[in-house]
Amino acid sequence: MIKFIIDKFKSKPLWYLERVMNPLWWMHKIKINITANKIASLLYVMHENKSKDWSIYRDQQLSAMLKYAYQHCPYYEILFEKYDVDINNLTNFENLPLLDKTIVRKHKKELISCKTNWLDTYTMNTGGSTGEPLEFIASQLAATIFGTHLKFLYKIMGYRNGDKIASFDGSSIPEKLRFNNIYWIKTGIRDIPWGSVAYSSLYLTSKTIPLYIDHILNFKPSILRGYPSFISDIANYIIENKISIPFQVKGILLTSENAFDWQVENIKKAFNTNIYFEYGISEVCVCGYTVDNTYEYACSPFYGFTEILDTNGRHVKKNEIGEIVVTGYFNYALPFIRYKTGDLAVYNVQENGIVKLRKIIGRTQDFIYTIDKEKVALTAIIFGQHYRAFKNIERWQLEQNIPGEIIVRIVKGQTFSNTDEQEIKSKFKTICNVNVDCEYVDCISLTNRGKFKFLIQNIN
């Protein structure tokens, strides 16, 4: 028993050991778990009773966070008074200016709650794939509640105690393991909520992929969660090499990247299972998810308040595209109120207090410039079109250095042909008068977090 305890904690950082040795930390953890269990119960009620209206609960949660921010965060105290916001009935809430990364960096000190407790906070950062990395503090409660939502999704997929969950992400693998051809790490003894094994996208190549496949077949995960591009590469290899999966995969949860329809179909085919989507951000403000093959996202009314706004700050109408703007309910360390995520979505409806999105389609800054230096949204060129070439491309990436010209890097599938190249060039020319230069490569580099970046825009 003593050896087990020593092995469990010897690799932990000092700050972690200081916390677990503090009785106050354990008391706080109990409170967090009580809140998490309450949210879990509400999620199951919502799933079983589709007609129940959660609008009042949602507004109460929003009002509670506004009240907390007003009382404990100097930035919001000044802001709410300036815009005459009534924290009790949400009067003028929609008139509050939107929060973005620039404001958070500039006013971080005033945004942080005066009641911040080191027992409940951790440092978080965004990946910086947008060119705007951000470091901030977050409440452990917010992370725990997000994990509660994941557990709820796993249950919908059919998860039972003892099932294994594998993560497919950008984990950094120690050199010692890589030297022994091991490109995954054991992340813990529990599978809920993040998985007990994490496979890393950073080291996936044509030479290493058989090693990944062998380990997956031996590990036998019931649920996979991770980057669509990564899992799609695994799926393509399985299909091309006619590999049979000798165990049941109950579901695959795709997250962190946009997924093409052909990627989803390939993943379904390779693993013979249902696909689910999850949407969240590092700033712990929103949790969106899908539960059926319509792939319509429901934004949890128990985690944050979600708005879909146009460029003028007005809420969009049904089937219109807008930016996802969120207010988190649980990050008491640094409340994000009306925070611009930079993500675009097709709005469907707000039903019983639940915001539903037809699709999450990209970033607000994803634009290509024409020869006349006019901006054209990438969503219109790529995600709004039906390219026959998609099914013949393993991976592709766009890079723009000059207005009116675009470099398209393509990792060709076995059936890729000149017809596919001509279709791509024709679409870009017809839609936005942009000339395409195709470059054929064996692989496309990932970000330092192991994510795939679709557009590299070098024009400011």
Mean pLDDT: 89
The major pleated sheet works out as:
12 strands, mixed
Helix content: 25-40%
From the N-terminal CA to the C-terminal CA, the straight-line distance is: 59 Å
Approximate strand percentage: 15-25%
Rounded radius of gyration (Å): 23 Å
Low-confidence regions: 1-5
- Work out the number of β strands: 20
Strand order of the largest sheet: 4-5-3-6-7-8-9-10-14-13-12-11
Write down the CATH topology of the largest domain. Rossmann fold
Q: In one word, what is the shape?
A: globular
Question: What is the CATH class designation of the largest domain?
Answer: Alpha Beta
- The total domain count is 2
The secondary-structure class comes to alpha/beta
- DSSP helix count? 14
Please name the fourth-level CATH homologous superfamily of the largest domain. ANL, N-terminal domain
CATH architecture of the largest domain: 3-Layer(aba) Sandwich
InterPro entries: ANL_N_sf, CapK_Type1_Caps_Biosynth
Keywords: Ligase
Protein name: Phenylacetate--CoA ligase family protein
GO molecular function, one term: ligase activity
Topology summary:
Elements: H1 2-9, H2 14-20, H3 23-48, H4 55-72, H5 74-82, H6 101-106, H7 108-111, E1 121-125, E2 135-139, H8 140-157, E3 165-169, H9 175-179, E4 184-186, E5 197-200, H10 209-219, E6 223-226, H11 228-240, E7 251-254, H12 261-271, E8 275-280, E9 287-289, E10 297-299, E11 304-309, E12 321-328, E13 339-351, E14 354-363, E15 367-369, E16 375-377, H13 378-383, E17 393-400, E18 405-412, H14 418-432, E19 435-440, E20 455-457
Parallel strand pairs: 3-5, 3-6, 6-7, 7-8, 17-20, 18-19
Antiparallel strand pairs: 1-2, 4-5, 8-9, 9-10, 10-14, 11-12, 12-13, 13-14, 15-16, 17-18
Helix pairs in contact: 3-8, 4-5, 11-12
